[in-house]
């Protein structure tokens, strides 16, 4: 069966049944290829036990580990699409072009979930594409987050940052992009592995990239905390009594960062046990640990968009040349 074409018509026979019975409890890397082929033809027999075992081999050997839920995939496509359309409107109104990254992220998520919808029709298709898209998309969400904070800092007092606001934004995004390259390299290594050791190396490389990305987000949160701590100590800016628009941005950045950390923690746990471990083969885990957090991120970006926040703030503006504060509103 080495020259197998899934379009050819074969009947489930005793040899196929024996292969399925011997392989259905094995890890994907230990399954016999002929058992995978056999599972295709024995998935719809009248024997409930054989059908269950054949389906177990079929979904595992095709990498998914389950049948993707088409209903959820369609809902996600619509949800990300609506957020993207609103972002396009907000960008055109505000001319805040860095939020194009959020639209790009929504597009990546939509592509990934469209591939999952296709995979729900045919497990032979879509796995690699959806894995790549859902891995890459959060990178640009992080870039938009750093840009938002940089703009906020520039509108108040950028001198309180450890480095310049633009340098900080590009440094953080540059490191994020590097972690992306690491993840892609690890994924390519694992996907092309012909033995368990090479596969494990690829998985660990991907894990390293995810952990590095998580660390960058935590560093950002530390810088964010230091900045607002300095604002309070040096300029008596208390977020509890600040302008409402500043509050929205402040809590929005915290919420987005927290959701990115949650997603990073999920991916770390997933890859720590291998790409085909129990977490990776849990569709509910992907939805709760990745999809819902990233969907929430896009809509929070809609709420905290500079069109409604930074362009309408009425709190302190600092004159950096003479260090005088010009009070435009109650803080």
From TrEMBL:
Its main location: membrane. The chain crosses the membrane at residues 71-89, 96-119, 131-149, 170-192, 204-228, 248-266, 286-304. It is a multi-pass membrane protein. Pfam families: RTA1. It comes from the Eukaryota. It is found in: Membrane. The keyword Membrane applies. InterPro entries: RTA1 (IPR007568). Keywords: Membrane, Transmembrane, Transmembrane helix. One of its GO terms (cellular component) is membrane. This is RHTO0S30e00650g1_1. It comes from Rhodotorula toruloides (Yeast).
